[in-house]
Structure prediction request, 117 residues.
Amino acid sequence: MNPKRVCPVCGDPILGRIDKKFCSDQCRSDHNNLRNRDTNHVVRRINGVLRKNRRILEELNPDGKIKIARQQLSSRGFDFKHFTSIYRTKTGNTYYFCYEQGYLLLDETYCALVKKD
Prediction:
């Protein structure tokens, strides 16, 4: 006997292949969206911060290299805690990058903005 299989999302009967888990693509999609909702919210928020940081660096550094006051970054809402990569030079300098846009903290007051080619 074949027990009647029902969709875990909507409760409708599942027709078709024996290994099918949902009655429709919509129910499968709804199930996966619900399962990943919390993680996606965190990822979306962090990606938003990274995109904003990159946009700020790009606007302030149109020519690829410039020295500016850290206050200029802070006043535009730049978040120094979020970046995509770190590059350390042989001389010990540490560059922080948001995708291809980066910065080097020179001292408490100034930053050097750079662009990776």
In short: Helices lie at 25-60, 70-75. Residues 25-115 form one domain.
